[in-house]
User: Fold these one by one.
Assistant:
Number 1:
Amino acid sequence: MALLRKLGFYLVALFAAVTFNFAIPRLLPGNPVDILLGKLTVAGPVSPGTRQALEVLFGSDTSTPIWQQYIEYLKSIATGDFGVSVTYFPTPVVDVITSALPWTLVLVGLTSLITFIVGVSLGTVAGWKRGTWVDSIIPATTILHALPYFWFALVLVYFLSIQLGWFPLSGGYNVRTSSPGFNGPFILSALYHAVLPALTIVVSSIGGWILGMRNMMVSTLSEDYVVTAEAKGLSPRRVMVMYAARNASLPSFTGFAISLGFIVGGSVVMEQVFSYPGIGNAFLLSVQNNDYALMQALFLIITIAVLFTNLIVDLFYSVLDPRTRAHR
Amino acid sequence: MNFSRSVFRVAIAGTALALSLTACSSGSNQPGASNVPNGAGKDGPVLQVYRGGSGQFVENYNPLSPTVLKDVDGLIYERLFFFDNLQPLGTEPTPELGKSYKINDAGTVVTVQLQEGVKWSDGEPFTAKDVAYTFNTMRDNDALNRTGNTPKAEATSDTEVTLTFDAASFGTVPTILGSPIVPEHIFSKMADITTDTNLKPVGTGPMKPGDFTAQSYTYDKSDTFREADKVVPAGLRYYSLSGNEAATNKLLAGELDWAGINIPDVEKVIKSKPDLHLQDTTNQQVILTTCSNAKLGCTGPQTSPAVRHAMAAAMDRDQINKLAYFGRGVPISPTFGVVPRDNDLIDKAFPTMPMTADPAKAKSLLEADGWKMGSDGIYAKGGERLSMAAVVTSGYTDYISALEVMKQQFKEAGIEIVPQQQANAEVTSARGLGKFQVAIDSVFDGPVADPYYIYSNSFNSANLVPVGESGNPYGNTSKFSNPEVDAAVQAAGATQDVAEKAKQYAIIQKIIVEDMPLVPIINNKGFVMYNDSIYTGWKLYAAGGAEQTLLQLKLK
């Protein structure tokens, strides 16, 4: 019953998000035809009939009433047919997303997971050994956290790629020596290209996890049940992990859940700096080009991902923390 | 919206930073490990090319589609003739699939003689029927009829085709003869030509498609090309990079042979690299577009010609050139003919705009127009301050700094402009609707070196809609309207006699210089860069001249 109520709530949230998805891109000024026209104008001479030809081609029909567009939109969500991207005309939006999504999921997903695990572990140790030298990692990582991370990325590119030549400048893999697929050279190349972007994300976001976890550890350690556990003579390790860390990590899990959903949205700035072929790049281009179809699909996927991960964590949370289980 | 814009600004700031970082990295140079030949025999290494691709490439080899891959039109598909718009009007075009052409005196019928013995890459012969098919298809399909004036075509023999326009069309002929020709036996089988991506392209040009991935694609040399022995490179590889900073890094690292990157202060950036050179390929005539026509709904001080002339006089173009264009700009003619290329078409009465400011002249112009100096140092008339909003796309750094410089200069002459940075979509929409006072932008070259294209696009009342209606944001945005100019544009479009054109242009020039709806700033030359450590003989063109560039490359 509680589960059903939860699902019902998520359904309502999904419906609201889907409706906003429809409305927001339509509030943007301009239209895709004129933006493409601007690009063509800069690239070379444009003939006088081009604007009309593009309007016919993209089917920019403004005469359809808005409610009818909304119904069409709901239908397209139900069938998974999101139409054709204007930015990548005539590629279907679904193809654009499926080719960009793996890059983002693997890179941002893995690095987020690594950052979370390492950050929470370090935070646990730092809280446990508070007042010792371990505390010095807190200010160090907080400074890294405070850096604007596109700047940090540029610094990495400058020193490690341009000056030392240890890492590639940009891209997702070496386009000259490998081609995408499940083969050794490609996977190695992709991993090699992912080092700097991953490093950027890890270094710039780990500080938050450490700090949050460490502070929760400190307050949890002063709880009576921890004192009780110590008095019972349990091993320090068991007290640290099962009594203190388990309870102290709850807020971190909430934060992680929310950040998981946003993985799908990619990391717009990082992808720009490294020319990384992920969702963030597609996202930026779709907004710049007033590409309604692509924007809607991307927003929708992000919305669903955030809601879905929240649901999962909601369910998982009741396993972790019995207090949040609904009373029958 | 706010989110994406701020992110975009961050990205732009990042770009600027990366550029300044790379500008001082002179010591690093990765040797051209990139340029490993992947062709066999005597062919040279594969050219490494960046021509402005960002994001993912879309595998689209259909030259009739607006989102076709770069240089498919030019390397795989050829046109009848290649027109070089950097040469003066009247220069003969370079034949590609055509051999020669004749236009009748009325400008309605073009007869084209074609090359003989040309074959498509699948072995089928190329004939006049393919040419006729191409133009008739474009004409019959609204989504492909980009000139709005595609001729009816008829193959009169295997090597002769007749193109019949509905009206005198001297102005459209270069665009038509410069359109890619597609094979009838392939394209006629497509279900929908406008959206087919033509994954197995069959062309006549020097290249055929190689590998494709969303980040990079290649062309391989085509052995069936009629002048294959003149093509040295074994192929070309095109890259998608996130933008200027990534491309500049790659260029400076010696990993690109051919690059179209808009680098600020480019001469300083490439100074330490003796292999890198640049060639001017476009004329970007930077202007202040004013919403000038009060009758069509424009409001603000800029609707008075005296104010527009005062702005033109108050500009210190030398300073703008130095601060916004790093000294690469050249003087601009108020007639928008390019000096010296179009000298024969510019009335001698109109020299180029002075490069220094004359605030005294600006003030006397304003005072003669009834403006009175206010206590705040800005002129006013009837309670209205001489203050105008000037929109500019955020991230367009040259425009933004030019506007900031002008803002200071105009203050000296008692004129105020308030720069407003907006997202590209907002600026485009404002321009289309006419809901702006002043905007900084540019007029660009036409398909041949003829100011006709600028006059018929930006000063012709045929392209006009009143303020508030959605018009072409790159058409007649100043809302200029004058029947004499319309008549002269029409007359100039109905002749190919350069002297007669010049006569008509003199009429237009007198009126538009007096009215000055577009305030000229400077001619900023666009450029393309190349690296001559492997190939020499670089001759670069504005748009679509890839085949001509390729044919002249030699190994060093």
Number 2:
Amino acid sequence: MSGLEFILDGERAVAPAGSTLIRALSANGVETPTLCYLEHTSAPNVCRVCVVEVEGSRPLVPACSRLLEEGMVVSSDSSRVRHARKLVFEMLASSVDLSLVSEETGAWMREYDVDPGRFGPTLRTDGPAASMRPGHHERPDGLSFASVAQPPLIQDDLYVRDYAKCILCYQCVNACGPEAQNTFAISVAGRGFEARISTEFEIGLPDSACVYCGNCIAVCPTGALIPRTEFDLRASGGWAADRQSVTRTVCPYCGVGCNLELTVQDGAIVRVDSPLDHDVTSGNLCIKGRFGFSHVGAQPRSEPA
Amino acid sequence: MDLHFADAEATEAERAAVDRFMSAHASETGPTKAARLERPRSRERRDLLLPGLHALQAAIGWISHGALNYLGAAIAVPPADAYGVASFYSMFSLTPQAPNVLHVCDDIACRANGALEVVDECERVFGPEGSGDSVTWHRSPCLGRCDRAPALFVQRAGEDDFDHGPVHADLSGRAIDGLAELEGMNIDLGIERSATPQGQAEVRLLRRIVERIDPSSLEGYRANGGYAALHRAVEMGAESIRDLISESGLTGRGGAGFPTGLKWKMAAAEAAPRFVIANADESEPGTFKDRVLIEQDPFALIEALTIAGVSVGAEKGFIYLRGEYPVAGRRLEAALAAARDAGLLGRDLFGRGISFDIELRIGAGAYICGEETALFNSIEGYRGEPRNKPPYPTQVGLFGRPTVVNNVETLLNVLFIIMEGADEYRRLGTPTSPGTKVFSVSGHVAKPGVYEVPFGTPLQDLLALAGGMRKETGGMRNITSFGSVLLGGAAGTFLGPEALDLPLANEAAIERNASLGSGAVVVFDTETDMFEMVSRIAAFFRDESCGQCAPCRIGTVRQEELMVRVGSGFDSGGLIREVGRAMTDASICGLGQTASNAVVSALDLGLIGGDA
């Protein structure tokens, strides 16, 4: 693979041809904040916290999806870049519950001195704005500020959709659809700030095309999609990361050989994932591998008399 | 993929509507289908989703869960996806509603002419927005009838839609009692002369319109110079046409000003199949020139797009027309049929082995679909969300194929250039903005309408052509003197009296931090409540953001909220400028990148925010 020369923050740099900017920057020791980006899926390119400045481009460009070109002049830390990243983080944090984002994202928000309170107190809404006709909205009052706060959707024992935490990154829609599962149970519905992840006509997940593979959970960057076990433990205050260990094993259900990562707390499995970078699964599992673990901790049935 | 449909049955009427629609499209094959197969994301007949939804909405008046299931099964689109698309457009209702829906424009140009009184009257007569059993009403963004403000658009189940204006408050009661009567009025007004009050000045694109040539007659069109350009273009050959267009210096009239010849060359250099598209999704508030050009000279657009197809080497063209232009839609449909019958569209044109046909696609109420990559997604049956660029449309466009998208007005210039030559084209205008520009002039001018003037014409000369400031607005209040002008629509900038000498050319506008944009010129007098106007623009972007990227989805909300603070003197506009910069820098497409232009320019001019 041949290398491309470019200028990164005033210094000469080299990265392999075909690299996205995010990889090219990383190869030269410059990390980039991300929210909607995952290494193993095609970049949704929507959160825009990864923007960098490229000479010759009027707007900033998303590092996650823009390919490196020979001779590009890239600034990763200019005042425009810092301003855009800070404001986008502030806008997201002022409208979405970001309490479950990764440590790295939290560090970036501190780096940019993110203060969502600058927009004022947020307005709690009581549910998705599904009833709102596209192109129409309630006029603001100048005191409260809109957010996507809403009660979590708990419709089954397997996972919870807590859309107050949704940044609308499309990863779940893509995983349910063309990227992994080809089930197409969910889509983005509505428009603008009322855009939301939804089944058709907001029907319940058990009635929808959902096959409960949970591959949407695997790609959710904000904890909006969360296994029921984890959700309940967090809700009761019993979720304790410091008492957890992760064990890698192979799924016993069929012969494919999917690797599992079992998150275990106090001797019980509380969450099952598969490594995103795994050759076989790319993080994907089926309903059995991801959710079929309750028997592990079950008490043995008493012998028939 | 096995589709899963939740229990919801279509009614007999819904099934019949879908069956009729499907049988009308059953025999379709051709380049569209061939191209679609190369795009792995695409599935069979997904491109029929938007017209299929239109068929249901038009027949039934709303789209039920059962109807959506039935349509989805017919075209193999998962119901969640179909719902995502249907809920994207404001002309589709996913809940039962009255069969007659008045879309009442309350946007800037209509607002300057009493639209809020019409809104009040609707509320009085019909009750709250969205209520009513036989007639309901909704506020609407600009309907592109600013020359006859205040305007409304009537969407009807089982009957043709129509638009109407001016609607005065005392008329709206009648509008409801006598829809048929109003529609009759509209047919008379469809070739309304006041839209082009320019008279016999030197016009190029407006010539047949000013001369009142019957827009419904192919013979009339041909007798007045029509189809001479296509014949000449075919003689010239594809490459010579591209060279001539480059030589003329023609630039795009949609707002971005990209060189048209270069765009055609870039697409022609890519492998076939290719597509050409006329972007007639004219939705920029204050812009109505393309509606007038299409309603009153529809064959010209068809001829020009055919030339583009010949020159680029495309066998299929699309005209993407906004859904709120029913008269333009019916005239285009009729003109396309007439052109096909006359052998001017179809296979082996002129015995030269050239194949080219045009499909008319109708939008459904989404400003963003005028953005070219959102337009591709809309035609393909996806949500009208813009794509990331690069790759550019000339490389990867509609159905993943090289595609040229040109504004209606841009294409019409091609006819003139081919007949008169590049030098003659350049005789008017400025060296960097050659030719003429068609402006939509509205607001507080005496003669709102469409005006064609050479690039470089001073703003005040254009306003003089439009009769200067009007004396009164239908008895509401007297108009005072010139206060400000919004140039380029909602995505444009406010300019004050000091800009009246501005030469209307791309380079001169850029020098003043403005842009001609789509050519919208909305004039306000000194007594206009500019805070209300700017707030309406902020609300417009909040309504029309597609919601895909965070800076625009949330930034347009914050911008509107912060406007309230600016209005009440709590904020001097510092944070609103910060939000605006982030939207401009970090948004995916032109909507977010320009969503703060008008607000920031109003702050700069002191039209709003003076007190903090």
